[in-house]
Amino acid sequence: MAVDLSVEKVTKTFGDFTAVSDVSFAVEKGRFFSILGPSGCGKTTLLRMIAGFIEPTGGRILIRGSDMAGRAPNRRPVNLIFQHLALFPMMNVAGNIAFGLERRKEKKPDIDRKVAEILERVGLPGFGSKKIDQLSGGQKQRVAIARCLVLDPAVLLLDEPLGALDLKLREQMKVELKKLQVQVGTTFIYITHDQSEALVMSDHVAVMNNGRFEQVDTPRNLYAHPKTPFVARFVGDNNAWKGTVRDQQEDLCRLETADGQMFTAAGAPDLAPGATVAFFIRPEAIIIAPEAGVQHFNRLTVTIRSILFDGANSRLLATPGDGGEELMIALPQNRQYDHLAVGDRIDIGWNARSASCFKVS
Ligand code: ATP
Protein backbone atom coordinates (compact mmCIF):
# COMPACT_ATOMS: atom_id res chain seq x y z
CA MET A 1 0.00 0.00 0.00
CA ALA A 2 1.32 3.47 -0.89
CA VAL A 3 2.32 5.70 2.00
CA ASP A 4 1.03 9.28 1.71
CA LEU A 5 2.67 10.71 4.84
CA SER A 6 5.78 9.65 6.62
CA VAL A 7 7.02 11.43 9.73
CA GLU A 8 10.49 10.32 10.82
CA LYS A 9 11.91 11.15 14.26
CA VAL A 10 10.48 14.64 14.20
CA THR A 11 11.30 16.99 17.06
CA LYS A 12 10.40 20.63 17.65
CA THR A 13 11.90 22.78 20.37
CA PHE A 14 11.02 26.35 21.26
CA GLY A 15 14.03 27.64 23.23
CA ASP A 16 14.65 24.95 25.82
CA PHE A 17 11.06 23.65 25.67
CA THR A 18 10.43 20.51 23.62
CA ALA A 19 6.92 20.68 22.14
CA VAL A 20 7.27 17.57 19.91
CA SER A 21 9.75 14.88 20.79
CA ASP A 22 11.03 12.16 18.44
CA VAL A 23 7.70 11.41 16.77
CA SER A 24 7.58 8.82 13.96
CA PHE A 25 4.60 7.44 12.08
CA ALA A 26 3.45 6.60 8.57
CA VAL A 27 -0.03 6.91 7.08
CA GLU A 28 -1.14 4.83 4.12
CA LYS A 29 -3.11 6.34 1.29
CA GLY A 30 -6.82 6.76 1.99
CA ARG A 31 -6.61 6.32 5.75
CA PHE A 32 -8.24 8.38 8.46
CA PHE A 33 -5.48 8.95 11.01
CA SER A 34 -6.11 10.88 14.24
CA ILE A 35 -3.71 12.45 16.67
CA LEU A 36 -5.41 12.47 20.04
CA GLY A 37 -4.12 14.18 23.15
CA PRO A 38 -4.84 16.74 25.86
CA SER A 39 -4.45 20.47 25.37
CA GLY A 40 -0.81 21.50 25.05
CA CYS A 41 0.56 18.04 24.18
CA GLY A 42 1.96 19.22 20.84
CA LYS A 43 -0.74 18.20 18.32
CA THR A 44 -1.03 21.57 16.59
CA THR A 45 2.74 22.01 16.47
CA LEU A 46 3.04 18.63 14.75
CA LEU A 47 0.28 19.47 12.28
CA ARG A 48 1.82 22.86 11.50
CA MET A 49 5.12 21.18 10.72
CA ILE A 50 3.38 18.83 8.28
CA ALA A 51 1.63 21.84 6.71
CA GLY A 52 4.94 23.70 6.49
CA PHE A 53 4.13 26.70 8.71
CA ILE A 54 7.00 25.78 11.01
CA GLU A 55 10.10 23.71 10.31
CA PRO A 56 11.09 20.77 12.55
CA THR A 57 14.16 21.16 14.73
CA GLY A 58 15.08 17.60 13.81
CA GLY A 59 13.78 14.69 11.71
CA ARG A 60 12.09 14.47 8.32
CA ILE A 61 8.58 14.79 6.90
CA LEU A 62 7.87 13.06 3.58
CA ILE A 63 4.70 13.38 1.55
CA ARG A 64 4.29 10.73 -1.14
CA GLY A 65 7.99 10.03 -0.75
CA SER A 66 9.23 13.62 -1.21
CA ASP A 67 11.12 15.30 1.61
CA MET A 68 9.26 18.51 2.54
CA ALA A 69 12.26 20.22 4.21
CA GLY A 70 12.31 23.91 3.29
CA ARG A 71 9.22 23.69 1.08
CA ALA A 72 6.67 26.53 1.58
CA PRO A 73 3.12 25.63 2.73
CA ASN A 74 1.53 26.56 -0.61
CA ARG A 75 3.96 24.29 -2.45
CA ARG A 76 3.13 21.22 -0.34
CA PRO A 77 0.45 18.76 -1.51
CA VAL A 78 -1.52 19.30 1.70
CA ASN A 79 -4.42 21.47 2.82
CA LEU A 80 -5.37 22.50 6.32
CA ILE A 81 -8.84 22.99 7.78
CA PHE A 82 -9.10 24.95 11.01
CA GLN A 83 -11.75 24.94 13.70
CA HIS A 84 -12.99 28.29 12.43
CA LEU A 85 -13.47 27.21 8.88
CA ALA A 86 -12.25 30.52 7.47
CA LEU A 87 -14.81 30.59 4.66
CA PHE A 88 -15.20 33.94 2.90
CA PRO A 89 -18.65 35.22 3.96
CA MET A 90 -18.87 37.74 1.10
CA MET A 91 -18.51 35.06 -1.58
CA ASN A 92 -21.01 32.38 -2.43
CA VAL A 93 -20.25 28.66 -2.09
CA ALA A 94 -18.83 28.35 -5.63
CA GLY A 95 -16.65 31.43 -5.11
CA ASN A 96 -15.20 29.95 -1.92
CA ILE A 97 -14.44 26.64 -3.60
CA ALA A 98 -13.05 28.24 -6.77
CA PHE A 99 -10.69 30.53 -4.85
CA GLY A 100 -7.68 28.20 -4.76
CA LEU A 101 -8.14 27.15 -8.38
CA GLU A 102 -8.25 30.81 -9.49
CA ARG A 103 -5.04 31.48 -7.61
CA ARG A 104 -3.53 28.62 -9.53
CA LYS A 105 -4.70 30.43 -12.68
CA GLU A 106 -6.76 27.50 -13.92
CA LYS A 107 -9.14 28.15 -16.85
CA LYS A 108 -12.72 29.24 -16.12
CA PRO A 109 -14.45 26.21 -17.74
CA ASP A 110 -12.14 23.83 -15.81
CA ILE A 111 -12.85 25.69 -12.57
CA ASP A 112 -16.63 25.53 -13.13
CA ARG A 113 -16.47 21.81 -13.88
CA LYS A 114 -14.28 21.04 -10.84
CA VAL A 115 -16.50 23.11 -8.50
CA ALA A 116 -19.64 21.30 -9.73
CA GLU A 117 -17.95 17.91 -9.37
CA ILE A 118 -16.69 18.52 -5.86
CA LEU A 119 -20.08 19.87 -4.69
CA GLU A 120 -21.57 16.62 -5.95
CA ARG A 121 -18.94 14.58 -4.10
CA VAL A 122 -19.52 16.29 -0.76
CA GLY A 123 -23.28 15.95 -1.08
CA LEU A 124 -24.11 19.60 -1.90
CA PRO A 125 -25.10 19.48 -5.61
CA GLY A 126 -26.53 22.77 -6.85
CA PHE A 127 -25.35 24.72 -3.78
CA GLY A 128 -22.86 26.86 -5.76
CA SER A 129 -24.88 30.09 -5.73
CA LYS A 130 -25.87 29.92 -2.04
CA LYS A 131 -24.42 32.44 0.37
CA ILE A 132 -22.25 31.09 3.20
CA ASP A 133 -24.59 32.48 5.87
CA GLN A 134 -27.51 30.57 4.33
CA LEU A 135 -25.82 27.28 5.21
CA SER A 136 -26.12 25.11 8.30
CA GLY A 137 -23.02 24.37 10.41
CA GLY A 138 -22.69 20.95 8.81
CA GLN A 139 -23.01 22.36 5.29
CA LYS A 140 -20.34 24.98 6.01
CA GLN A 141 -18.12 22.16 7.17
CA ARG A 142 -18.61 20.36 3.87
CA VAL A 143 -17.91 23.53 1.87
CA ALA A 144 -14.65 23.98 3.79
CA ILE A 145 -13.71 20.40 2.98
CA ALA A 146 -14.74 20.81 -0.67
CA ARG A 147 -12.60 23.95 -0.93
CA CYS A 148 -9.58 21.88 0.08
CA LEU A 149 -10.40 18.69 -1.82
CA VAL A 150 -10.92 20.54 -5.11
CA LEU A 151 -7.17 21.24 -5.04
CA ASP A 152 -6.61 17.47 -4.93
CA PRO A 153 -4.20 17.37 -1.97
CA ALA A 154 -2.34 14.17 -1.08
CA VAL A 155 -3.22 14.76 2.56
CA LEU A 156 -5.95 16.79 4.23
CA LEU A 157 -5.02 18.13 7.68
CA LEU A 158 -7.90 18.88 10.03
CA ASP A 159 -7.26 20.87 13.21
CA GLU A 160 -10.19 20.18 15.57
CA PRO A 161 -12.72 21.12 12.86
CA LEU A 162 -15.72 20.14 14.99
CA GLY A 163 -14.57 22.12 18.03
CA ALA A 164 -16.84 25.11 17.45
CA LEU A 165 -20.02 23.10 16.84
CA ASP A 166 -22.70 22.36 19.41
CA LEU A 167 -22.86 18.85 20.84
CA LYS A 168 -25.67 17.52 18.67
CA LEU A 169 -24.10 18.75 15.44
CA ARG A 170 -20.73 17.38 16.53
CA GLU A 171 -22.28 13.93 16.94
CA GLN A 172 -23.81 14.11 13.46
CA MET A 173 -20.68 15.50 11.86
CA LYS A 174 -18.50 12.72 13.30
CA VAL A 175 -20.51 10.22 11.31
CA GLU A 176 -20.74 12.48 8.23
CA LEU A 177 -17.05 13.27 8.16
CA LYS A 178 -16.13 9.60 8.32
CA LYS A 179 -18.57 8.76 5.51
CA LEU A 180 -17.24 11.64 3.44
CA GLN A 181 -13.64 10.55 3.94
CA VAL A 182 -14.44 6.98 2.85
CA GLN A 183 -16.29 8.33 -0.18
CA VAL A 184 -13.58 10.73 -1.37
CA GLY A 185 -10.71 8.38 -0.40
CA THR A 186 -8.34 11.24 0.56
CA THR A 187 -5.89 10.68 3.43
CA PHE A 188 -7.10 12.61 6.49
CA ILE A 189 -4.89 13.61 9.43
CA TYR A 190 -7.23 14.76 12.15
CA ILE A 191 -6.25 16.27 15.46
CA THR A 192 -8.53 16.30 18.45
CA HIS A 193 -8.60 16.13 22.24
CA ASP A 194 -11.94 14.29 22.07
CA GLN A 195 -11.38 10.55 22.36
CA SER A 196 -14.85 9.68 21.12
CA GLU A 197 -14.26 11.62 17.86
CA ALA A 198 -10.96 9.82 17.36
CA LEU A 199 -12.39 6.37 18.09
CA VAL A 200 -15.49 6.75 15.93
CA MET A 201 -13.82 8.13 12.81
CA SER A 202 -10.29 6.80 12.60
CA ASP A 203 -8.59 3.81 11.05
CA HIS A 204 -5.63 4.49 13.35
CA VAL A 205 -5.15 6.79 16.32
CA ALA A 206 -1.92 8.12 17.80
CA VAL A 207 -2.26 9.06 21.46
CA MET A 208 0.03 11.98 22.23
CA ASN A 209 1.21 13.18 25.63
CA ASN A 210 3.92 15.70 26.50
CA GLY A 211 5.17 15.90 22.93
CA ARG A 212 5.51 12.14 22.46
CA PHE A 213 3.41 9.41 20.89
CA GLU A 214 2.41 6.94 23.60
CA GLN A 215 0.69 4.44 21.29
CA VAL A 216 -0.35 4.25 17.64
CA ASP A 217 -3.05 1.68 17.09
CA THR A 218 -6.51 0.86 15.81
CA PRO A 219 -9.33 2.29 17.95
CA ARG A 220 -10.23 -1.21 19.11
CA ASN A 221 -6.71 -2.06 20.23
CA LEU A 222 -6.26 1.27 21.99
CA TYR A 223 -9.38 0.60 23.96
CA ALA A 224 -8.81 -3.10 24.66
CA HIS A 225 -5.01 -3.15 25.00
CA PRO A 226 -3.67 0.20 26.20
CA LYS A 227 0.12 0.03 26.30
CA THR A 228 0.72 2.80 28.85
CA PRO A 229 -1.10 4.08 31.95
CA PHE A 230 -1.71 7.37 30.14
CA VAL A 231 -3.55 5.63 27.29
CA ALA A 232 -5.55 3.55 29.77
CA ARG A 233 -6.68 6.74 31.50
CA PHE A 234 -7.21 8.91 28.45
CA VAL A 235 -9.06 6.55 26.12
CA GLY A 236 -12.52 5.56 27.38
CA ASP A 237 -13.60 5.32 30.98
CA ASN A 238 -11.44 3.19 33.21
CA ASN A 239 -11.32 2.43 36.90
CA ALA A 240 -7.80 3.02 38.15
CA TRP A 241 -6.06 1.59 41.22
CA LYS A 242 -2.59 1.55 42.60
CA GLY A 243 -1.18 -1.53 44.27
CA THR A 244 1.98 -3.34 45.31
CA VAL A 245 2.91 -6.73 43.84
CA ARG A 246 2.95 -9.38 46.57
CA ASP A 247 3.73 -12.46 44.48
CA GLN A 248 3.72 -13.56 40.88
CA GLN A 249 2.93 -16.75 39.00
CA GLU A 250 3.50 -16.86 35.25
CA ASP A 251 1.66 -13.81 33.89
CA LEU A 252 -0.56 -13.37 36.94
CA CYS A 253 0.34 -11.44 40.04
CA ARG A 254 -1.33 -10.75 43.36
CA LEU A 255 -1.61 -7.11 44.24
CA GLU A 256 -2.38 -5.37 47.48
CA THR A 257 -3.99 -1.94 47.41
CA ALA A 258 -3.31 0.81 49.96
CA ASP A 259 -6.52 -0.10 51.83
CA GLY A 260 -5.49 -3.77 52.06
CA GLN A 261 -7.60 -5.32 49.28
CA MET A 262 -5.95 -8.26 47.48
CA PHE A 263 -6.51 -8.64 43.72
CA THR A 264 -5.16 -10.86 40.98
CA ALA A 265 -4.18 -9.20 37.71
CA ALA A 266 -2.51 -10.18 34.48
CA GLY A 267 0.55 -8.00 34.05
CA ALA A 268 3.87 -7.48 32.37
CA PRO A 269 6.44 -10.21 33.17
CA ASP A 270 8.73 -7.75 34.99
CA LEU A 271 6.32 -7.17 37.84
CA ALA A 272 8.53 -8.46 40.66
CA PRO A 273 7.31 -8.55 44.28
CA GLY A 274 7.46 -5.09 45.81
CA ALA A 275 6.86 -3.29 42.49
CA THR A 276 4.25 -0.53 42.47
CA VAL A 277 1.66 -0.96 39.75
CA ALA A 278 -1.27 0.93 38.32
CA PHE A 279 -4.12 -1.28 37.20
CA PHE A 280 -7.23 -0.47 35.26
CA ILE A 281 -10.60 -2.17 34.82
CA ARG A 282 -13.17 -1.05 32.28
CA PRO A 283 -16.65 -0.34 33.73
CA GLU A 284 -18.15 -2.93 31.37
CA ALA A 285 -15.67 -5.63 32.48
CA ILE A 286 -17.16 -5.60 35.97
CA ILE A 287 -19.76 -8.27 36.56
CA ILE A 288 -22.52 -7.97 39.14
CA ALA A 289 -23.18 -11.00 41.36
CA PRO A 290 -20.46 -13.19 39.80
CA GLU A 291 -20.77 -16.96 40.15
CA ALA A 292 -18.73 -18.54 42.93
CA GLY A 293 -15.64 -20.63 42.27
CA VAL A 294 -14.45 -19.16 38.95
CA GLN A 295 -10.64 -19.12 38.76
CA HIS A 296 -8.67 -15.86 38.82
CA PHE A 297 -11.75 -13.90 39.65
CA ASN A 298 -11.55 -10.82 41.83
CA ARG A 299 -14.43 -10.17 44.15
CA LEU A 300 -15.58 -7.19 46.12
CA THR A 301 -18.67 -5.98 47.93
CA VAL A 302 -19.56 -2.38 47.18
CA THR A 303 -22.19 0.18 48.14
CA ILE A 304 -23.98 2.02 45.34
CA ARG A 305 -23.44 5.80 45.67
CA SER A 306 -25.15 7.02 42.51
CA ILE A 307 -26.87 5.71 39.41
CA LEU A 308 -26.13 7.48 36.12
CA PHE A 309 -28.70 6.96 33.36
CA ASP A 310 -28.12 8.58 29.97
CA GLY A 311 -30.85 6.98 27.88
CA ALA A 312 -28.92 4.15 26.26
CA ASN A 313 -26.75 3.17 29.20
CA SER A 314 -26.85 2.97 32.95
CA ARG A 315 -23.79 3.15 35.13
CA LEU A 316 -23.27 2.84 38.83
CA LEU A 317 -20.80 4.67 41.00
CA ALA A 318 -19.96 2.55 44.01
CA THR A 319 -17.42 2.36 46.80
CA PRO A 320 -16.06 -0.65 48.64
CA GLY A 321 -17.17 -0.62 52.28
CA ASP A 322 -18.24 2.78 53.55
CA GLY A 323 -15.71 4.84 51.60
CA GLY A 324 -12.57 4.52 49.52
CA GLU A 325 -11.97 4.82 45.79
CA GLU A 326 -15.08 5.19 43.68
CA LEU A 327 -15.67 2.56 41.01
CA MET A 328 -17.71 2.91 37.84
CA ILE A 329 -19.74 -0.13 36.81
CA ALA A 330 -21.59 -0.37 33.48
CA LEU A 331 -24.90 -2.20 33.75
CA PRO A 332 -25.85 -4.71 31.05
CA GLN A 333 -28.45 -3.33 28.63
CA ASN A 334 -31.02 -6.05 29.34
CA ARG A 335 -32.27 -3.96 32.28
CA GLN A 336 -32.00 -6.90 34.69
CA TYR A 337 -30.60 -4.52 37.31
CA ASP A 338 -33.27 -1.81 37.06
CA HIS A 339 -34.23 -2.57 40.66
CA LEU A 340 -30.87 -1.45 42.10
CA ALA A 341 -30.98 1.70 44.21
CA VAL A 342 -28.54 4.07 45.89
CA GLY A 343 -27.40 2.57 49.20
CA ASP A 344 -27.74 -1.07 48.03
CA ARG A 345 -24.78 -3.33 48.71
CA ILE A 346 -23.85 -5.61 45.83
CA ASP A 347 -21.22 -8.22 45.07
CA ILE A 348 -19.12 -7.50 42.02
CA GLY A 349 -16.13 -9.10 40.35
CA TRP A 350 -13.89 -9.17 37.31
CA ASN A 351 -11.59 -11.60 35.64
CA ALA A 352 -7.89 -11.07 36.39
CA ARG A 353 -7.20 -11.00 32.66
CA SER A 354 -9.64 -8.18 31.96
CA ALA A 355 -7.51 -5.69 33.90
CA SER A 356 -4.58 -3.80 32.36
CA CYS A 357 -1.61 -3.62 34.65
CA PHE A 358 1.52 -1.43 34.45
CA LYS A 359 4.61 -0.93 36.52
CA VAL A 360 4.92 2.64 37.74
CA SER A 361 8.03 4.24 39.14
P1 ATP B 1 -4.35 22.60 22.03
O1 ATP B 1 -5.23 21.37 21.91
O2 ATP B 1 -4.62 23.39 23.28
O3 ATP B 1 -4.30 23.42 20.79
P2 ATP B 1 -1.88 21.27 21.33
O4 ATP B 1 -1.78 19.86 21.74
O5 ATP B 1 -2.25 21.54 19.92
O6 ATP B 1 -2.85 22.04 22.29
P3 ATP B 1 0.43 22.91 20.80
O7 ATP B 1 -0.34 24.10 20.38
O8 ATP B 1 1.12 22.12 19.76
O9 ATP B 1 -0.47 21.93 21.67
O10 ATP B 1 1.50 23.37 21.88
C1 ATP B 1 2.39 22.45 22.50
C2 ATP B 1 3.27 23.20 23.48
O11 ATP B 1 4.20 24.01 22.76
C3 ATP B 1 2.50 24.14 24.39
O12 ATP B 1 3.07 24.06 25.68
C4 ATP B 1 2.74 25.51 23.78
O13 ATP B 1 2.72 26.52 24.77
C5 ATP B 1 4.12 25.35 23.17
N1 ATP B 1 4.30 26.20 21.98
C6 ATP B 1 3.60 26.12 20.82
N2 ATP B 1 4.01 27.05 19.94
C7 ATP B 1 5.01 27.76 20.56
C8 ATP B 1 5.86 28.86 20.18
N3 ATP B 1 5.77 29.42 18.97
N4 ATP B 1 6.75 29.29 21.08
C9 ATP B 1 6.86 28.72 22.29
N5 ATP B 1 6.10 27.68 22.72
C10 ATP B 1 5.18 27.20 21.86
From TrEMBL:
Q: Which InterPro entries match?
A: AAA+_ATPase, ABC_SmlMolc_Importer, ABC_transporter-like_ATP-bd, ABC_transporter-like_CS, Mo/tungstate-bd_C_term_dom, P-loop_NTPase, Transp-assoc_OB_typ2
Keywords for this entry?
A: ATP-binding, Nucleotide-binding, Transport
The cellular component terms of Gene Ontology attached to this UniProt record, alphabetical and capped at eight, are: ATP-binding cassette (ABC) transporter complex
Q: Among its keywords, does the record have Cell inner membrane?
A: no
What domain of life is recorded for the organism? Bacteria
Q: Name one GO molecular function term.
A: ATP binding
GO BP: any one term: quaternary ammonium group transport
Does Nucleotide-binding count among this protein's keywords?
Answer: yes
Where's the ABC transporter domain?
5-235
Protein name in the entry:
ABC transporter ATP-binding protein
Q: Which organism is it from?
A: Desulfosarcina alkanivorans
Q: What is the lineage of its organism?
A: Bacteria, Pseudomonadati, Thermodesulfobacteriota, Desulfobacteria, Desulfobacterales
